[in-house]
């Protein structure tokens, strides 16, 4: 009862009104400021997200003299306003692959052209390993698998030879790595768009390069796209190939191994010249010379896939 009487006697004066008004204004200002800051932060994030550019950065700390490669570099999107004007872009990776750093670069920092010792693109021959050979083979829309072949793919090569109105197809090389398609020596990191090209460059051994040269003149070469994890060799049936080619006796062995050989006709498609006896990397033995027939020419058969 006393409390009720006290509350009835309490009459707020002018000071209490001012205090309440100040508190109300303060609360409204705090809420408004918080909302404003949230909106500004969201706008900044939206602008940054909407305008980014992909650049090549160091995957880890790189010391001076480090040779750049795919193992030491990565692609990272950065806000366009913070991107350096001379930063290396992903589509320019070919030009920095194999280059040497003239200055150290920390992990996550952009790779700039001015940080490289040699600003020029390394020659394509530097990509060919010692003991290997790069050979270029012309292709059409079918042989290039509708332009879907990419540098780094693994393919098999088949050769088709025509003799006396008969066409015979058999393996030429197996598990061959594609080094370049046209003038492009790396896959496009930006898109899977197909590109037009009329040649593919292959990584081969010297002996394999010889087979390709002879087969290119003797018939038509077709590329078959292969899963890089597929290490199984394509078996050759000597009897079937001999029957298709019309070889009497079928003495030629086309089994896998060092003794495997593929019979080809060099210059015989035109019908103007008799077949020549060819045997790359070997000399014709006296036995082979005495046994010459319509198909005395031979080249080594495809080697087993590289593991």
Automatic annotation (TrEMBL):
<dbReference type="InterPro" id="IPR013974">
    <property type="entry name" value="SAF"/>
</dbReference>
<feature type="domain" description="AFP-like">
    <location>
        <begin position="55"/>
        <end position="119"/>
    </location>
</feature>
<dbReference type="InterPro" id="IPR017592">
    <property type="entry name" value="Pilus_assmbl_Flp-typ_CpaB"/>
</dbReference>
<dbReference type="InterPro" id="IPR031571">
    <property type="entry name" value="RcpC_dom"/>
</dbReference>
<dbReference type="Pfam" id="PF08666">
    <property type="entry name" value="SAF"/>
</dbReference>
<protein>
    <submittedName>
        <fullName>SAF domain protein</fullName>
    </submittedName>
</protein>
<dbReference type="Pfam" id="PF16976">
    <property type="entry name" value="RcpC"/>
</dbReference>
<dbReference type="InterPro" id="IPR036732">
    <property type="entry name" value="AFP_Neu5c_C_sf"/>
</dbReference>
<feature type="region of interest" description="Disordered">
    <location>
        <begin position="286"/>
        <end position="307"/>
    </location>
</feature>
<dbReference type="InterPro" id="IPR006190">
    <property type="entry name" value="SAF_AFP_Neu5Ac"/>
</dbReference>
